[in-house]
Every structure is written in C-alpha cells, then in structure tokens.
Design a protein that fits this description.
Two copies of one chain form a homodimer.
Chain A: E1 5-11, E2 18-24, E3 27-31, E4 33-35, H1 48-53, E5 59-61, H2 63-68, H3 72-77, H4 80-85, E6 91-93, H5 97-102, E7 105-109, E8 114-117, E9 124-127, H6 129-139, E10 143-145, H7 157-177, E11 185-190, H8 196-208, E12 214-216, H9 225-235, E13 245-247, H10 253-261, E14 266-268, H11 271-277, E15 280-281, E16 288-289, H12 309-313, H13 316-324, H14 328-354, H15 358-369
Parallel strand pairs in A: 4-14, 5-6, 6-10, 10-11, 11-12, 12-13, 13-14
Antiparallel strand pairs in A: 1-2, 2-3, 7-8, 8-9, 15-16
Chain lengths: 376, 376
C-alpha cells in the first residue's frame, strides 16, 4: 500500500499541464502546488495557523538543518515533525544533499557517503544514503527524498556522468534502507547536470526503481532559465503519468507557470519568504520594494488585488515604517503576502488548466506583471 | 462632553481595590487593566488580530518614537494611530517626556521646553508642552499624557521640588494647548520624586486642574519596590474617585497586584514583551527561561494552566529550538504567552475584587508563583 498516490484530474488541452491531487497520510494536495519552506521546522515569520489561513496544503522542511539542530532524535520524540511543529497537514523533507553540497565546509565525497563540517559549529559529520533515510524516517514527513549529489553549474560532462551514476547507486541504497515505506513516500531525484543524455539516462534508471514520485533536481542553481526549461522539456514527459513530479528549489512566478506548462506538479523555494523579509513583495503588477522611499506616504495596500491579511488591513506606508523601524510585524506581513500571492497564483494556474487556457493565462499574467528580461 | 469617563463598579471590601470601566471613544476598558506597549505603532512581534485574540482592550504607543519615525504628520494622514496600525480599540500615548529624559542625548531643560538629540540620527529637536500635545493631537489616541520631567532615582529634594513645579506649569500649558478635548482625554501626571510632601503637593495641584484622569509617574525607575508602594499609598487615595488612575511603566505580576490593592486602575510596561523576546516567560509557577538547556526535551507547554495559542499547541522543547535557531516564531509565541498571562492575571484580579478577596488572592498567587526576594 503506497502512502502517496497521484490522481490525474485532467490535462490542459492548450498546454499539456496537469491538474491533479496528491493523496497523502496527512491529507490531499491540489496540484500544481507551491510548498512554503520551513527550513528549521518553522516557515520563517509564520505560525502554522497563518499557513492554514493562507491555504498552504503542504510545507517542506530541511533534513540537514534539523539533523544539526535540534537533532532528528528529539524531533522523533516529539512525535515527528508534525507533532514537533504542530502542523497536521502534509510535510515533505529533502535529503540534506543540497545543503551538504552548498552550505557545509570541507566536504569529501566517496562512494560510501559524504564527510563535511557543520555550518553552525564546525563539527565533523558523515552522511550516507542510509543515514539520510534514517534521519528522514525519524522526522516522519509524508514525502521524503533520496540522498543525491547536487552538481554545481557549470559542470564538466565527465564529472556530471560519474556523479549521476553514483546518485543512482545511492538511490538504490536509499530505497533499500527505507524503514517506513508504508507511511512515507520516498521520491527519486532526476540529476544529470544540463546534459540531455544524462538527464534521460537518469529518468530511465530512476523509473526502473519504481519510486512513488520523482523530483527534478539540480536546477535553479545559476543557469539561464532557458536551460532550466530545456531540462524540463527533456525529462518531464518521460516520467510516469501516474506519479507526482516535483521541481526542486523553484518558486518565482514565471518559473511556476513555465514549470506547470511543462508538466510539473510540485514546487518549493525559499525565495518568496526570503525576499519578503528584505521588504520585497510580488504583486499583480510586478515586484514592489516596499522599503523604498516612494512608498513613505502610499496608503494603498501592497497589492490591491490580494485578499491576504496584510493587504486587507495595512498600507504600504505602514509596512515600510515597520521595516524602517526594524519591527517583526513588517517581515510577518510581507511573508504572509508573498506566500498568499503564490498560493493564489497556483489556484489561478489550476483554474486555467481546468479551462484549457494555461498558455493564454501565461500571456495575460506576463503582460500584467510586466515581465522584463531582468525578471525572466 | 468628556471623551473618557470612569465608572466605578465596586471596591474590594478586603483590599480597597477598584473594579471599574473606562469608557472611551473606541470602546470600554475593564479595569484594573494591563496595557501592552506598542512603542513604534506595533506591539513588538504581535499583530493587531493576535492582540484582540488574547483580549487586549487598550494598547499604549510612544509619542517620542513616532515623532522621530515615521513622524506624527504621516500618522495623521493615515487616519491617526488607529488607522495607521489598524487598531480600532482604545489607544493611549505617553507625552515623550520619559524617552526624552532616558533615551535622547544632550538634553537641555528650560522653562520653555527641552532640547535634545535624536537617538536615531543625532539630529537636534525641541519639545515643549505645546509641541508634545500637538504631536499627541496628530497621533489621535483616546488618552494622551501631559509633558512632564521624569526625575532620576535617587534625586535631591530641591531639584525634585523645582522640577515638580515646572511639571505643574507644563501641565497647565498642555491643558491650555490641547486642541481636541472632546475626543482625546488629557491625563495629568503626578510627580515629586520619592518625597511625600512633593507627591501630595503634586496631587493637589493636578486635581485643581480637573483632568479627566491621572497617572502616577516617575516610579519603577530603579527604586526599591517598597518605596514605590509607599508613593502609591501616599497618593492614590487623594485622587478623585470618579477618575481613572494610571501607574506608568509598571508591569511585573507582583506590582500589578500590589498596584491594584492600592487603588490603581491602569498599568503599562515593556517588561513582558521584552523578556519574552529574550526567551523568558511568566508562568503560574514562576518565571521560566525557556532557552535553558533543561527544557531541551521538555514536551510540556510553557504553562499548563494557560489557554494561549503558544501553550495550546507548542512545547517548551519546540519553543527552545526556535530560540536557538533564531526563528521569529519563538519571540512571537513567548510574547503571546506573556501578554495573555498578564491579561488573565488582570481578569483574576478583577474577579477577586468582585469577590472581596484580593488580599487572599495575593497570598495564593505569591505562594504558587514562588515569589522570592529576587523577584520582589
């Protein structure tokens, strides 16, 4: 009995995008979906009650960070991540691979696993595929990820190829060591750098292992967006139709639309919450840097088309004041807004799929949002 | 027509404490009341919706800070403080006197007013009684304060006496220049240092001016609590029975109880929110420093007798993790808890007055809370 099942509701006749439901032990997720990131068992500046208010159906948390602090054993004692952070809807954890390769120091990659130093206290650690799954089993998310190597961009072909086959062998070991296949769905990760044959090989090998879902990793790491879209075009259609497809680390409005058009069901990214804490918000007319002096006496909401708590009750002038005065409520309001903006965008995307007009929707959105080369 | 009226419901037969209602243009306040402090037009880490959830009936904001940033003219354009910060219940503003005398640099006190430098950018400013009231009129709080000199502790008798008479003259000028007596109630402030005759003289002169309410200032500035209680004993009973009495800057649980027993109706203090942001909470069994290692695996709530959002849904272990990981939600949860704790305490005090047993309640509370000399 698989813990996670994908139900395809319909495909957009205009774009091929997929409307679906991912059924999980903690409830259903309507896809395409954007997943807010709760790195350290909390979506920064948000409460779980607020996440529900804005309509978040699933959140992501980071295995590397929770392993470092407070430790997966503590989280397990607290009833897993759901109990620890009081979130009774679905959770997805990454494997820690991305952080080991981007945050930690002095890593040493061997067939057995990776040795690295903590970004917090410099202590030495070793994570293998088995160890990553052991941690993810303790954390208890509904969806967990295989331990993989995340390549830099650009990356030489030979290195990418060797790495890919190691990531495939690691995926086999992850699957083998997964102790809770009935309650946690382990997703395979498609890697292979920006090389078409390696990406296709990755899909073939991962699909052979018959995971309950697949993610596409190693993207949005500095490559031009055209290349990212190419990789999606090469890979997504090769993935099984009856399994969810998750594009890791991608969350700007244009990428969400382009990803959906290319058959992606799930997305996550720290971008919307991170820029929010710096005073930048998405709006229906493009990005707004609310800290800017031009908003000092602007008593209109961040986005007059938004229905979030920040837009219903507060002005740009007030939110700018909160940022200038370094008040916590500022980051809270912009975070609520950015997440609600993306959740509303995903609902619009789903409606456009239902109406077979996602390509039209894209054009309308880009025109209104004022997409320039800068933002694309 | 006075904008603020005090209705005495009953006096505790055991203690003499007053149960009452302060009627204001933005609603009723049940007294004795604790007022959360929103220094910069926001109660730090809280949203207005959360303040309502925990039962806050009135909040305080600081004239000095709002004058500095974003400026009272901007707040006025936004519809006053109520509109600017989206708070439709009563607001009280202080006069800025306390901050001018404690935060600002290089002050120069003359009969006309005070010259000082901004704590933000070092710019030079001058505030007179007339200017303070002009700012408070622009901010638009329901209850506003006279501009006064706050003495240090200890303070020589002669200085305290001269200062007191100047504060009395300033109060006359404040009253004279108050442009909105029909919508904003201007309270007089009792000063006089720790000298009984000066405090009594202060009450006599202020009462002559027939303010709609009176505050007792210059306390909780480093003096032993016994002296503070002496000052309350000397002054409160001399104040008119039909006007609210506000003890400024006092908010520890014991002081709230002792103040109520001495006939005080209103209290404010940054202490509960400030210590919350450092990871310290009030509980029914005394203070808890939730950052401490002893709570790392404590899965019980901050206070098992509390009904706040933090205590209903989160453990000490989780909140400690949030503090260790420097996550905003940590300060949010402890702030919600500390404010709810004090609001519940005030409700208990009001019930004890109703039942004519506030002295008994004090004994029970101190025993349970484990009051020591340290905390007293």
């Amino acid at each position: 009995m698989l813990p996670v099942k994908y139900e395809l509701i319909k495909q957009c006749k205009q774009s091929g995008a997929r409307l679906g439901i991912v059924h999980t032990p903690h409830g259903d997720i309507h896809t395409p979906v954007f997943m807010p990131v709760g790195t350290q068992a909390t979506v920064k500046a948000m409460s779980p009650a607020e996440l529900k208010d804005i309509g978040a159906e699933i959140i992501l948390s980071n295995t590397y960070h929770l392993y470092m602090r407070p430790g997966e054993k503590l989280v397990e004692k607290a009833g897993g991540l759901h109990g620890f952070m009081n979130w009774d809807r679905p959770i997805l954890t990454d494997s820690g691979g991305f952080q080991v390769f981007s945050l930690a120091d002095l890593r040493n990659i061997k067939e057995e696993g990776v040795t690295f130093k903590s970004h917090i206290d410099g202590s030495k650690h070793f994570i293998s595929p088995e160890k990553a799954i052991e941690i993810e089993n303790a954390l208890g998310a509904d969806i967990i990820m295989c331990f993989d190597e995340c390549l830099p961009y650009p990356c030489e072909y030979d290195y990418a190829k060797n790495s890919l086959y190691r990531t495939i062998r690691w995926a086999e070991r992850c699957k083998e060591s997964h102790a809770k296949p009935d309650t946690q769905a382990l997703f395979g990760i498609i890697q292979g750098g920006m090389y078409r044959d390696l990406r296709e090989e990755s899909v073939r090998e991962m699909v052979k292992m018959d995971f309950p879902g697949y993610s596409i990793g190693g993207l949005s790491i500095g490559e031009p967006k055209d290349i990212m879209y190419d990789v999606l075009d090469w890979t997504a259609h090769l993935l099984p139709e009856n399994k969810p497809r998750y594009l890791m680390g991608v969350g700007s409005p244009d990428c969400l639309i382009e990803g959906a058009i290319r058959g992606i069901d799930m997305f996550d990214c720290v971008l919307p919450t991170r820029i929010a804490r710096n005073g930048t918000v998405f709006t229906s007319k493009g990005k707004v840097v609310v800290r800017n002096a031009e908003y000092a006496e602007d008593f209109s909401p961040l986005d007059d088309e938004c229905d979030c708590y920040a837009c219903k009750y507060f002005s740009k002038a007030y939110i700018r004041h909160l940022f200038k005065a370094k008040e916590i409520l500022g980051a809270r309001l912009t975070t609520i807004h950015n997440l609600r903006f993306l959740i509303n965008l995903m609902a619009d995307i789903r409606q456009a799929i239902m109406d077979d007009r996602l390509l039209d929707f894209r054009e309308e959105f880009y025109r209104k949002y004022g997409y320039s080369d800068e933002s694309k």
